[in-house]
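Write out the bound-state structure for magnesium ion.
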Amino acid sequence: MTPISEALEIIRREVFRLESERVVLAETGGRILTEEIRADMDLPPFDRSQMDGFAVKTDDVRNAPVSLRIAGESAAGRGWSGTLQSGEAVRIMTGAPVPAGADSVQKVELTEEENGFIKILKPTATDQNIVRKGAEMKADQSVFGPGELITDNMIATLASFGYQSVSVSRRPKVSILATGSEIVEIGDTPGADQIRNSNSAMLAAFAGRLADVTVLPIARDDLENLKKTVREAIRSCDLLVISGGVSVGDYDFTKPALREIGADVFFERVSLKPGKPTVFARRADTLIFGLPGNPVSIAVTFFVFVRMALLEMQNAAITGLKKGFARLTHPIKATRERDALLPVSLETDEAGHLTIETLRFSGSSNFIAFARANGLVFVPRNKDLEKGEVAKIYFL
Ligand code: AMP
Ligand code: MG
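---
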């Protein structure tokens, strides 16, 4: 059996890196950056007011209430070009430039206007309600670097520095192939010996965050048919995920099919629960994963192995799941020989701890419990975990 860490090492080694392309900014969420993003100007580019109110000299209002002459107006997009003199205030709006000579802004609620004069009711502190030029970012500073996953939260920053488009890795083309003579399409009513295909849609959703996905029709458990289907599938994708048929049953044809079409199989048994029969192979320039058909095994092996491959292909700097630690609310029995990564629900308790609620699993096929999982807990082989113990977790 291949240890998990070695399996991940092999994936990293065998993955080929996809080329870069420029993508319009609004569509870059979920893509991996391949260029250095630099500030092309100070941010803010001028001393900016954070309030609607009056720009003043802090010294002038030290003994407020005090009346000042309204010398002009600074609106957003139309600043006041003069220099504030002692005894004067400038009406100012949120987002407008603070005029020269002013060093604080009093908000309009703490002022009273009376024929050309403004009474400032409370003193201000220096810099109050002002964001100084360059306080958020200085021109030419590096903002984001190659390998970063672009989140939607980063888009406003990229826009602010003039990036109409961004250089990112091409998204991998992923095809998904469910196998199993018992599997029927979601829209069909399963017959006596049949079940609906829950894996293809789930895999399409998981992979769709990081790749362009094609879902293929279900393949029967038939070696020749499977070989033909796989041969055709790998012509038009970078990565093929095959669900099912990787165990040692009489009708498990995924491995024979991969071998007979000339794929190199790098590992086929991983010391992981669930997910022992996970297969990783490559044929020409397509990576192929064969994942055990149980929906929960599919989910865990996708998050541990396939997700990493998709991120490595796109040159991501961080390709593993986000790690953490949390406290167990229930004991967990370890598995002999294999490390376990079990889906769990992560919660917070009143003491501010992150806690691990184990899901009531009646086996690796219990995807109804899995529906509420938002993390995986790591259970080392042969080492039972006690209630109250702090365990290693991964966020999903
Ligand atoms: P296999 O890996 O083909 O031995 O399948 C293991 C278990 O997962 C069996 O109970 C299958 O019926 C089930 N299974 C396989 N593929 C799917 C699928 N696409 N959707 C739902 N269950 C599946
Ligand atoms: Mg099967």
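---
The CA atoms of residues 377 and 393 lie 4 Å apart.
Helices lie at 4-14, 155-160, 199-208, 223-233, 254-260, 295-313, 367-370.
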